[in-house]
Amino acid sequence: MIDFHCHLDLYPEALRLLPEVSRRNLFTLVVSTSPRAWQATSRVFAGYDNVRVALGLHPEIFEKKQSERELLLENVRNTQFIGEVGLDGSRRFVGTLELQERLLDEVLAECAVHGGKFISLHSRGAATRVLDLIESHRDCGVPVLHWFSGTPKELRRAVDLGCWFSVGPAMVQAEKGRRLFAEMPLNRVLPETDGPFAARNGIPWMPWEAISISDAASELFGRSADDVARTFEDNLRRVLKHSEKPLDFMRAQESAQRDLPF
Ligand SMILES: [Zn+2]
Question: Is residue 92 part of a domain?
């Protein structure tokens, strides 16, 4: 099981959940909402090889956290995982969109300077602008568009640009999300929850429930749920193959794995 985008630090009793998440999931990417939160969470979540904390500055709190811009940029070199970063062009945040854009431009440039990173990206209401920036920083690493909600045309452009996608149970419950999911190349999709923000009947999805998208994938792609789950694991290994520090679970299974093209 994989959760490539969750806010584990924001669950009630996160520290109690942490060992369970590590045990139940093959890999979990904990995205942070600000560089200070990244520092604190990295400290308290240390010691779990398969739970990684990504350095981020969430576009929804960009205005409040602008003072952490330097901290964000200067730490890009210190981590392989960036997120949650991106743009939010929805009505509430459109006022800061240009400033958000300037920051994302700087973050992606920094990612490119430091050899490329895994970047979990928010793009609500601003998919074209996010894709424009990815296009102008082709060496930024692996952009993973989280909960993509753009148009089918924007999706095709993202695929052409080499983007990956993280898809969660909340996304596939909605008709629009299912339609977009069906158009994604399954070999570039990773499960996510976006919990605790994403919830079902008020109860946050747990990081080990991201895999429940296998049922929707099975239906949309005409493959068995087991086959889909295996594809997600292959995807994870393939995408992380180029990480500076291979994860323990990858080393252990390396010999059994065929060499997949990046
Ligand atoms: Zn998120």
Answer: yes
Residue 212 CA to ligand 1 center (angstroms) comes to 18
Question: Is 157 within 8 Å of 134 (Cβ atoms)?
Answer: no
CA of 55 relative to ligand 1 center, distance in Å: 12
- Quickly state the pLDDT bin for 229 (edges 50, 70, 90): very high
Percent of all residues in the chain with a pLDDT value above 70, rounded to a whole number: 92
Residue 166 · residue 191 · CB < 8 Å = yes
- The CATH number that applies at residue 45 is 3.20.20.140
Q: What is the pLDDT of residues 3-17, one digit of tens each?
A: 999 999 999 999 999
Domain of residue 239 covers 2-254
Could you tell me the distance, in angstroms and rounded to a whole number, from the CA of residue 258 to the centre of ligand 1? 32
CA distance 91 to 29: 28
